Structures are given as C-alpha cells and as structure tokens.
Fold these 3 entries.
Entry 1:
Amino acid sequence: MANWSFWLCFALIVYSVTRSDARTLNPLVKKRRELSVRYRTVLEEAQEMYHFRLRNDGLSKIWDGSKRVSPGGPDPKHH
C-alpha cells in the first residue's frame, strides 16, 4: 500500500511540474529587449550629462578621495 501511494504521489508531482512548465512568449521577449535597449541608451546619456556637469561645476574633485581628519579635541584618548 505504501508503495502504491508513493507512486501516486510521484506521478502527481511529475504531472504538476509538466503542466506548469514555463513557455516562451516571443512578442513579450522582443518588447522587453527593445525596452532594455532604450533604457540602456537613456542611461548612457544620463551618465554622460552627469559627468559633464561634475566637470563643469568642479565637483569632480570631491569624489577623488576623502580629506577627512579624525578630530583630536582636548582629549584624543577619550574615545
């Protein structure tokens, strides 16, 4: 009896996996590719504008490195 129930359960699992198999939807895949190309070009343009703005504003020096110094204060051994 246990053997029969095992095979029934196994068959149901296999059946459910085969019925829920993903299928490719070609029109949706094509649209997604077109959108990704559009987003990529917009992203590249935005990055170029951002870098151009940083160069013009002189803010690119800020991103070079941190010039922060730890505070000495009256008692440097306090912390």
Note: The helical segments are 2-19, 26-57.
Entry 2:
Amino acid sequence: MINIILDFLKDNWIDIAVVLIFVFTLIYLWKKGKKQAVKDMIYYLVCKAEQEFGSKTGEIKYAAVVTWVYSMMPRILRFLFTKEEIGAYIEEAVEKLKQYLNSNSDINLLPYASEKLYQNK
C-alpha cells in the first residue's frame, strides 16, 4: 500500500505541486480580499467598545473587541487571520479612532442618554 502511494507521488509530483501552489494562491488572494472587511468590522467594534465602556478602560475594551470579533467572524476566517493580526488590526483601529476624535472635537461617542447624564454632573 505504501509503495503504491510512493509510486503515485513519484509519478505525479509536478501535478501535485502545481495544484498545491494554485490552492495556496487562491487562499492567499481570498484572505487578501477579506482583509479590508475584517479591518472595517474591527473598527466598528472598537467604536462600539468606546461607546459602551468609555475612556480609561483599555483592557476591557480590547477583550470585548476580541470576543466580538471571534463571535462574528466566520470559521474559515478565524483560521486565516492569526491572533497577532487581529491584535494589530485592533491597535490600528484604535489609532484611527483617536485621530478621528482629535480632529473632530465636537464628536461624542456616548449615547444620548449617557451624554445627558454626564452633562448634568
């Protein structure tokens, strides 16, 4: 049985290599195409965490965003994006949000009811 498999691999190694290269290329291109969608989803979740938890709660917000990302992300994408990549995308989204908030000082991410509560204090 093993000899049959080895003979098959010897006879068809070029075809197998071409198919593997093709499959990995398709996976890479698909991941590259989904990268922006994942970044957009993470940016939305970072904004949502900022609204829900407010400032000075970085670790809580980070944990919440990671949990939300993995609960929303399809299984296939979970295998294609590493935890390090997700963490880098979260940091990128946080910086993007900080820049946006610094350039637009009249923007308030707090919900209307919370905003009124804080203004009355």
Note: The longest helix spans residues 2-53.
Entry 3:
Amino acid sequence: MMIHEITEKVGKYKDRKRIGRGESSGWGKTSGRGHKGAGSRAGNTYRAYFEGGQMPFARRIPKRGFSNSAFRKNYHVVNLKTLEARLDDGAEVTVESLAALGIVRDATQPLKVLGEGDLTKKLAVTAAKFSASAREKIERAGGSITEVVQKKWMRDRSQKKGKADGDKAPKEKADAGKGQKDEA
C-alpha cells in the first residue's frame, strides 16, 4: 500500500450548500426561498413566535398560576467529599476561599454545604446554610461551623432609615383661619 492509495471514506465530508449559483446547482432558481415576500429577501428574520400577524400561540392559550423563580435564592452547593479531597487539615472554608481554589465559580452567591461523603479533616467552615448531616459530620471530625446570617430585604422605608413606627413626630396643622375672625 502506498500513501497515495490511502483515501478518505466516501461521505466523510459533506459538501457545503452553494446556493444562488443557478439552476444547475441543485438548489433551483430561487435557492429554496420561494417567490417574493420578506422571506426571499436578504436580512430577513422573524421573531421566534411570529405567526404572520395572527395571534401567536403563546398569547392564545390561557395563562395559569405563577412562579417565584425570579426571587429564588441561588446557592453554591458543595459536598463534604469535595472538601475532603481538595482541602488540607485545619483549613478555613469560606465561599471566597473556595472560589480562589476553583471549587465554586465565584463568591457572589452564598454557600450551602451538604453532607455527601465522609470527613476526617478538621475544618473551620463558614457558610450560609448546612444540611443536618453535614453539620453533624463536620462537628464529629472536630471542625467548627459558622453560619452567616443573610441580610433580609427591608420592606418598610421607616425600617430602612432606622426609625421605629412610633418615632415620627406628629405634623402640626397649619391654621388657615377658616371660620375664625381676627379680634384685634
């Protein structure tokens, strides 16, 4: 066998679709675009749900229920087996330290520690949440747990400013003099 006799499998590489090259190209006169209209023109795009002007399906069907997914709290989730494999004995575990090691992507979201796997190393873990099994395994290994208190969103403006409800001074009514005569 010689090098020039080695050929590629037939059909390994598919020829690209050369459109707009005449009727002999195999794609016809209009290159599969049909006649006239926006679809035949260059730069034509429609919104994904556009149905030619009729009421789109997504607007025709009834809407039911609601979702709180926009307000969901997302956590970086880490299991004990990951901490056991990647950290040294006596290490301090925070979301920042895990981000530096590449265990979590970044330090923007709070950390949740789950109890999958065994832990033999003594670790000082600081996180927003712990599962019951993770808490028990960390303490059994001689480690310490610090739960970070998440800041709650404050609904009332008076709470934001640090005012209690009863701290507002009553407004004095301006005397407009209605119904009263000056006695001078």
Note: The domain at 76-147 is CATH 3.100.10.10 (Ribosomal Protein L15; Chain: K; domain 2).
